[in-house]
Amino acid sequence: MPTPSFDVRIWAVRNRNGRKTAEVRWRVGAEEFGSTHANKTMADGRRAELKAAINRGEPFDAESGLPMSEVRAIEAARTEVTWYAHARDFIEMKWPRSSAKRRMGLVVGLSTATVALTAKDARGPDPTQLYQVLYLWGFNVHRWKEEPPAQAREMLAWIEANSLPVRSLEKADSVRAVLGAMSVRLDGKRAAASTFINKRAVFRTAVGYAIEKERLDRNPLDKVSWERDDDDNQVEPACVVNPTQAHALLARVYAQGRRGRHLAAFFGCIYFAGMRCAEVVKLRADQCTLPKHGWGELRPCKSGPRVGTAWTDSGDAHDDRGLKSRARSASRSIPIPPELVAMLRWHVYRYGTAPDGRLFRSAVGGLVQDKAYRLEWARAREQVLTPVQVASPLAKRPYDLRHACVSLWLNSGVAPTEVARRAGQSVDVLLKVYAKCIDGTVKQDNDRITATLNAWKTPKS
């Protein structure tokens, strides 16, 4: 609560150590306060405002040092800003500098938090419908200029009228309501730990923006104890194929007709070079060094994840962005073995490139669609793997070839720092996520352990 005081003294403006900036200093009670300004003229203006408050007979707040009229104005601003209005300010600020996939993640987190921070009304819309209208219309900046359907307009108006103020987060119960909503899916089942962690990160960043905008004094998340779930974003050994299985799957893809032959090298880039699917989609011929003999090199510098037309600036389904966790213009050097060199040389000889130099393209020349390569991969699994393996997580997704590649590098004795560089990951993430065993090497590992134990046995006399 503000503490009014008439014991106020204001000193003359002073320059700071020869700099152009100027400082206003004043005292309220026993506490001193100050504000720094770009130049002396601005500082004189602020000093004049403070002097005017004294001349009006206005008390100052002993805690903040501000005239009580300014304190009341700040409190009123805090009271007026609802969480929904703040969340829209936040997403509008983040949108221009965020990738399409990041935008989607921000909207997912904000939609969950906003539904949790609405007044509870048994007659209100269903929470699932509220989430959907926020996801589609409330926080998608690209669609703010469009006219939502009538039902969506009604729900957005209801959210505006019933959204709790940002300051409601000062109560621990409100924070717990948000975290609780983030820990479950829309169907009420427990959410994956990674989903909760990602949503909570968005919420924390939005709360930080509220502090920056002076809508909150401190981060309310810091005073709420919440049991942290273990991160489930780890590769299970059961999904990692061994080299024999990988070669058999790649050979089968090649044998599956025209589209399969075109995509065989696509999957080869994932398995032999550890590339992400979205990176292979954008790989160009001028980024490949493919000698007749020996090792080659790939230098990807673009990524094209499919996120949907609603999230990209271009309106394309695929985003056009740099490599993950790197500067937009940065590239990554990946040495590739002769097997992949041969696959790519044949691919270029047989299919050429797209007009922009891309190695892989759809039938009409566009980007390779994830639906197409997933279908070819599913067909190959059914032909190569046993029924039990087909029903298991073993190489269930094309992305699992990347896990197999990185696991193979690690198990081959390649230094983790070099593996992380080739894979485009930090060493911490690499060791946490990718350091897994290759399927089918358990017996070899057991034999090594047995040999070590036998070496330490005491000889019988």
UniProtKB/TrEMBL annotation:
Q: Does the keyword Cytoplasm apply?
A: no
Q: Which GO terms describe its molecular function?
A: DNA binding
Q: What is this protein called?
A: Site-specific integrase
Q: Per its UniProt record, what InterPro entries does this chain match?
A: DNA_brk_join_enz (IPR011010), Integrase-like_cat_sf (IPR013762), Integrase_catalytic (IPR002104), Tyrosine_recombinase_XerCD (IPR050090)
What is any one GO biological process for this UniProt entry? DNA integration
Give the UniProt keywords, A-Z.
DNA recombination
Q: Where is the Tyr recombinase domain?
A: 235-454
Source organism of this protein record: Embleya scabrispora
**Stretch list, region Disordered:** 306-328
